[in-house]
């Protein structure tokens, strides 16, 4: 797929990694459609006007201002908004108010709709797709273009892969004008439209790179009956490792659209994912954390969460971790599994001691701890009448037994 | 023998005066690694622990000390630049420990490093150790033991867990390599498997994978097609709910591509022994090497 001297032209390939694209949206930092549109507009991408409403009355006022048929669109971090009834046409301002009222009552894929975007309805002649993701296989940003837009791009990839162009960009040079034209001619045969599209694609690439994107997408990219090329929708996902150097993007994060416990964990620099079981897990490192969950299941238990305290841990992180886990009423036992490398186990031991002093635990605690500064850690725990195990399997079995009242294990 | 590092490794530490850099530089020195230089811009001319000269730039450090390997502990915002600086200074191996490097930075670092024909390990990796010879990174030296099994892993602490189980069972290692969990990294499973296959002292290999991507599946096919030595493996994330990213940017379950079940099946189909628990690696190795 890489452009080489033997293979100078971008090749058409089925998008074998398409599902990655869907899951990226949900996992990095999502921003809303209206926010992505504001960014794209700054780059000169033609986008019809639109305003955000949080009440039906505001939606009505915006529709009246536009004086035309409008589209009212739910602003939530979930795909399939249309199918869920989150996108509706309104011919009059009164109708805009009533559909906004309906949409603002919706919960789409577990996320309550708190905002709607009101935008004039456009006359559409054709619908295309244009997007960029970072691809693991080529280790490059890859453009994806399809003249069959307006629907799930995954569906296009599965059913009509010939309608999909996948083109890796050399990040040292960026998207060159001839590449933008090649992609644009794949979408449009009309030269004027292709030229307009090439400009949009160049600006989309710029917006993607300059804002630290892991995904940037226009679906649909439309032509109007008069031949204009417009971006009707906009989606952007930001790599969360970019946020430290991009405070303006970090400020776009809408925390009301995320689970509160996960927001709390992120503020404490922890990676936390809530699950349905009853064994609370505190682990250092993502791989060991997953292996710990697997082992809990192996011995007949159910993990209540994934929680990675990361490396270079300080005691406060451990205090936050215990606080988040004990907030879950399902948790019947807590398991620490710490293998110290860059994490110093004495930091973890100090954190456990401090946390228990502040908030005595209501459930039993099993600690497995070994590695860097282990001797100091064991001494700290011992001074506070806590003990630690060294074997992972034994610790997991004990935690499962305590959580299930001795029925499993 | 071993792969990538040995007694002749002359190590340079980028970020030697930082919290993590200084701590692990001391650990590596205590292990017996030849730490010959440190780099911290602005601190050139000073000495680390009264032993190791500190330089302002990597180029100067390489010229004055003959360093051939670098390990990077600098913060994420500066890590891409540190990797490129090291690559440009003519080292043969760069080990980037730093976690949280933006992926777009790595899209630029990767071709820069490739053009200079050297090996990058990481970023977001624990480094590597050839027990009894050299330790580069953050893997605790005392859990390892010299022996004849090679290990390659995408994870950090899970690597320690498996090495610890092996050492307790008296199964030593030639080299343990942590390739890191980021979507774009310098060295992959196949690079390490190929090196272990060539290493005369390595008799068998352990491969520790994770959910997300297709690297393990491709590595399994490589084992079947190109390797004579036995390989056993473990995949973390068998119980991970689909569609959730678990800490590692690489660990994204993507529909049918990248689940633990799919990877374990690929192992089985290509003759790689599958461990259900980390500790099962030990029995599988014993059987494979009998």
Describe this structure in words.
- The complex is a heterodimer of chains A (409) and B (290).
- Helix content of chain A is 38%, strand content 22%.
- Chain A has 409 residues and is of the alpha+beta class.
- In chain A, the strands form five sheets. In chain A, strands 1, 8, 9, 10, 11, 12 and 13 form a seven-stranded antiparallel sheet that branches. Chain A has a four-stranded antiparallel sheet with strand order 2-7-3-4, with helices on one face.
- In chain A, helix 3 (56-66) packs antiparallel against helix 4 (93-104), helix 6 crosses helix 7 and helix 11 crosses helix 12 (345-358).
- The two termini of chain A are 50 Å apart.
- The model of chain A is unreliable at 1-27 (pLDDT under 50).
- In chain B, helix 6 (189-198) packs parallel to helix 7 and helix 7 runs parallel beside helix 8.
- Chain B has two domains: 10-121, 3-Layer(aba) Sandwich (Rossmann fold), CATH 3.40.50.720; 139-288, Rossmann fold, CATH 3.40.50.261.
- Chain B has nine helices and 14 strands.
- In chain B, the strands form two sheets. A seven-stranded mixed sheet of chain B has the order 3-4-2-1-5-6-7, with helices on both faces.
- The longest helix of chain B has 13 residues, at 19-31.
- Chain B is globular.
- The chains are: A alpha+beta (409), B alpha/beta (290).
- At the A-B interface, helix 1 and helix 10 of A face helix 1, helix 4 and helix 5 of B.
Characteristic terms for this protein:
heterodimer, A: 409 residues, alpha+beta, D-amino Acid Aminotransferase, Chain A, domain 1, Dna Ligase, domain 1, Rossmann fold, 3 domains, 7-stranded antiparallel beta sheet, 4-stranded antiparallel beta sheet, 18 strands, 38% helix, 22% strand, elongated, B: 290 residues, alpha/beta, 2 domains, 7-stranded mixed beta sheet, 9 helices, 14 strands, globular
């Amino acid at each position: 797929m890489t452009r080489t001297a033997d293979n100078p032209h971008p090749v058409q390939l089925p998008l074998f990694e398409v599902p990655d694209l869907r899951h990226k949206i949900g996992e990095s930092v999502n921003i809303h459609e209206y926010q992505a549109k504001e960014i794209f507009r700054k780059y000169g991408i033609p986008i019809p006007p639109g305003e955000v409403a949080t009440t039906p009355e505001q939606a009505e006022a915006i529709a009246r201002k536009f004086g035309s048929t409008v589209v009212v669109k739910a602003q939530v971090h979930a795909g399939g908004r249309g199918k869920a009834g989150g996108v509706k046409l309104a011919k009059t301002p009164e109708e805009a108010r009533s559909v906004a009222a309906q949409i603002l009552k919706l919960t789409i894929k577990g996320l309550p709709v708190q905002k709607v975007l009101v935008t004039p309805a456009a006359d559409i002649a054709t619908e295309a797709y244009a997007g960029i993701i970072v691809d693991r296989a080529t280790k490059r940003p890859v453009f994806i273009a399809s003249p069959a837009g307006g629907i799930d791009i995954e569906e296009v990839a599965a059913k009509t892969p010939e309608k999909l162009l996948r083109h890796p960009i050399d990040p040292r040079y960026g998207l060159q004008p001839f590449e933008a034209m090649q992609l644009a001619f794949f979408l449009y045969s009309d030269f004027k439209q292709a030229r307009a599209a090439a400009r949009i694609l160049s600006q989309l690439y710029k917006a993607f790179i300059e804002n630290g994107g892991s995904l940037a997408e226009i679906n649909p990219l439309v032509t109007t009956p008069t031949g204009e090329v417009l971006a009707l929708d906009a989606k952007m996902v930001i790599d969360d490792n970019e946020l430290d150097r991009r405070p303006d993007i970090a400020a776009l994060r809408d925390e009301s659209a995320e689970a509160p416990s996960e927001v709390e964990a992120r503020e404490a620099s922890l990676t936390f994912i809530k699950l349905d079981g009853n064994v609370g897990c505190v682990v250092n490192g993502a791989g060991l954390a997953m292996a710990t969950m697997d082992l809990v299941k192996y011995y007949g238990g159910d993990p209540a969460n994934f929680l990675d305290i990361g490396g270079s841990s300080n005691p406060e992180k451990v205090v936050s971790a215990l606080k988040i886990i004990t907030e879950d009423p399902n948790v019947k036992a807590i398991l620490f599994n710490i293998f110290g490398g860059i994490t110093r186990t004495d930091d973890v031991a100090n954190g456990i001691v401090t946390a228990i002093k502040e908030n005595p635990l209501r459930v039993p605690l099993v600690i497995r701890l070994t590695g860097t500064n282990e001797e100091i850690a064991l001494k700290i725990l011992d001074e506070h009448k806590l003990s630690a195990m060294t074997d992972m399997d034994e610790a997991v079995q004990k935690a499962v037994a305590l959580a299930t009242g001795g029925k499993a294990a | 023998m071993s792969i990538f590092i040995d007694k002749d490794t002359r190590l340079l530490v980028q970020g030697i005066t930082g919290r993590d850099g200084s701590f692990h530089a001391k650990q590596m020195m205590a292990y017996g690694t030849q730490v010959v230089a440190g780099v911290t811009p602005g601190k050139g001319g000073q000495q680390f622990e009264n032993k190791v000269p500190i330089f302002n730039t990597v180029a100067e450090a390489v010229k004055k000390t003959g360093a051939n390997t670098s390990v990077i502990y600098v913060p994420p915002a500066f890590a891409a630049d540190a990797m490129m600086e090291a690559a440009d200074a003519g080292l043969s191996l760069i080990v980037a420990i730093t976690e949280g490097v933006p992926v777009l930075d790595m899209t630029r670092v990767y071709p820069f490093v490739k053009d200079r024909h050297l090996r990058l390990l990481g970023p977001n990796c624990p480094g590597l150790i050839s027990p009894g010879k050299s330790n580069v990174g953050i893997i605790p030296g005392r859990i390892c033991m010299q022996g004849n099994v090679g290990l390659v892993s995408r994870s950090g602490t899970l690597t320690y867990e498996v090495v610890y189980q092996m050492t307790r069972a008296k199964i030593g290692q030639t080299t343990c390599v942590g390739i890191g969990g980021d979507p774009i990294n310098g060295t992959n499973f196949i690079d390490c498997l190929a090196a272990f296959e060539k290493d005369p002292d390595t008799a068998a290999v352990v491969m520790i994978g994770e959910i997300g991507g297709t690297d393990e599946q491709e590595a399994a096919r490589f084992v079947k097609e190109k390797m004579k030595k036995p390989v056993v493996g473990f995949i973390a994330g068998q119980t991970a709910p689909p569609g959730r990213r678990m800490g590692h940017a690489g660990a994204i379950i993507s529909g049918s591509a990248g689940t633990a079940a799919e990877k374990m099946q690929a192992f089985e189909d290509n003759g790689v022994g599958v461990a259900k628990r980390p500790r099962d690696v030990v029995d599988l190795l014993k059987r494979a090497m009998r």
